Amino acid sequence: MLQGGETTTMHSLFNTTHRGHDMAAVALPNMAERLARSRRRSTHEYRLDAGARSTEQVLSRSELSQLKDSNEHLLRAAVPGIDWLHQQLGDLGYCLLLTDFGGATLEVRASGQRVDQFSSAGLREGACWSEPNQGTCGVGTAIADKAPVLVHGDQHYLLQNHSISCAAVPMFGPAQQLLGVLNATACTHDAQKFGQALAYRLTLQTAARIEQSIFMSHYSEYWIARVKRQLDDWEAEPDDLIAFDECGRVVGASWRLKQRLGQQEWRIEDILDCSVEGLIDFACAHPGTPLRVAASGGDGALFAQINAPRRAARRSSATPAPPEVKRTIPGAGDATEDLRRLERLLNAKVPILLLGETGSGKEFNAKIIHARSRRRDQPFIAINCAAIPETLIESELFGYREGAFTGARAKGCVGKIAQADGGTLFLDEIGDMPLALQTRLLRVLAEGEVLALGADKPRTVDISVICATHRDLSAMVRDGLFREDLYYRLNAATVRLPPLRERDDVAELIRSVFAEECKIASRSLSMSPHVEDGLLVYQWPGNIRELRNVLRYAIAVCPSEEVGWADLPENFRAQVPETVNDRRRAHLPGSGGSGQPSESDIILSALKRTQWCVSAASRFLGVSRSTLYRRLNEHGIEVPPK
Ligand SMILES: Nc1ncnc2c1ncn2[C@@H]1O[C@H](COP(=O)(O)OP(=O)(O)OP(=O)(O)O)[C@@H](O)[C@H]1O
């Protein structure tokens, strides 16, 4: 968040002159000074003899293969880049090197006839180009300085390297950690000034794209804003990247921007002058189109391309899980806003996970989200994994061909997944899905294809998925009962539905469910205040389902125009003593009642029943919050902090 007195303006956050290096400039600032420092390190720290041949350090095949495994993410992102760079520079006599953060060479690209020449100069897989090993050199000095470097001919420390010329660019990960170095090397007689300038610029651009690709895949489950100043060089300039969640919390930024943002917490609206809803709405309506935005607090125009979270992101165990996005639908007012967000997420095919106790409205909300989404005219198919015997879930979900198993229907059966094609699949009680089926479901979500039992060809399906459970899925993952990869795929947007007793709109809900049930029963009834109070104070272990049942019962048995205490189900009345309500009327406010029990007893009882929520207790007691606070003071009752 932007603090008062903060000197960094939003404008300067995206000012290209603040970049770590200028993409257009070839002359590197302080290069001579940096090379001199590197020479001193080579002599005094590493005690290298410039004239002696370095004892060549090359990794064995198995060491190299291990190193490649541990640099899997870097290699996956960098190989297309190094191939592209080789196409541009290979004919100019350049050899390309990708090293890890310690200078060990992971990949080499060199054109046919020069391979031997480069190899005998030490430019080959497994060779180590660290400064302690080679003295001043492209890769080693770029690692030591954590900055791009140009080292030409005799600027190299070792005599044996005087025949080469290097442009080396270090690359950094989302946590600003050094990942490795991209390096272009030519033999000096090839490396004309023109060639060297071009090689440097292209290496810089390719390294920036590799960093970008690593960032995008690291934060693939978040919204990502790719921000730049000018549209026309969209391809050439590295974008500033900002990853944010659907609540607008910034969870990551590309390393150059991160250096400018510092360690404080940011929201996307603090950086770009646009609400998170505005950005997400635009991205859903115009995928891939850059949006013109201003920098918050600055006057510069920017372009932001917003990438939606990837629905098919597979999480490898090496990538740390991003923190879960957890939202609560607290009450009717906020719920509208939350549902709008969820509807947008469903449109973007981001799976939604609804958590909540039984009867708290998981299916009810899933239907609302679907009904508000672009898929509203397509099917909403629900399946309750806890309600179907384990042996039948598979055929229910995936369907089967005729004769797939004994007892199968003659014509086969279209499964729920295929029925939901084009619409929404609601998987209730996902925590009860057997492990083997979790694997099959994961494949459907990853590949968008479903294979019916006994079928030989899969069918392509386009489904949005909403799951629900009352179980603690992360604990189930820990205990090996739920697949970790499925869990991460399903929990991109997790929403917790609070139990009725914790909601701050209980009174409104009672009224609206009462009105609905009256309509269903074709009766026009009112509710006595006595009943309303009782409903308000009850703890509702069965949540809204229980509330609906209690009201349905009362409406059905009510002999008059007003639902009274006697109309409520007996077991409900047994748990909410009528006297609580009578006492309330006798004592507060300022009623001059019988004096037993005391006013403080009544207040304490109301607070306990409302779990020490002053607003709810004041509603229960029928007094304003300020009156209740005054009385609390008078009686010396302290409300414990939440
Ligand atoms: N916001 C709401 N307004 C009115 N009625 C609601 C609301 N939320 C839930 N209900 C009602 O409560 C009952 C239970 O809701 P629902 O079936 O969605 O709960 P659930 O959390 O899916 O329960 P379970 O986990 O047992 O399947 C339904 O009758 C539903 O109509």
From TrEMBL:
Organism: Denitromonas halophila
PROSITE patterns per UniProt: SIGMA54_INTERACT_2 (PS00676), SIGMA54_INTERACT_3 (PS00688), SIGMA54_INTERACT_4 (PS50045)
Identification of the protein by name: Sigma-54-dependent Fis family transcriptional regulator
GO biological process: regulation of DNA-templated transcription
SUPFAM superfamilies: GAF domain-like, Homeodomain-like, P-loop containing nucleoside triphosphate hydrolases
UniProt keyword Methyltransferase present: no
UniProt keywords, alphabetically: ATP-binding, DNA-binding, Nucleotide-binding, Transcription, Transcription regulation
Spans annotated as Disordered: 313-333
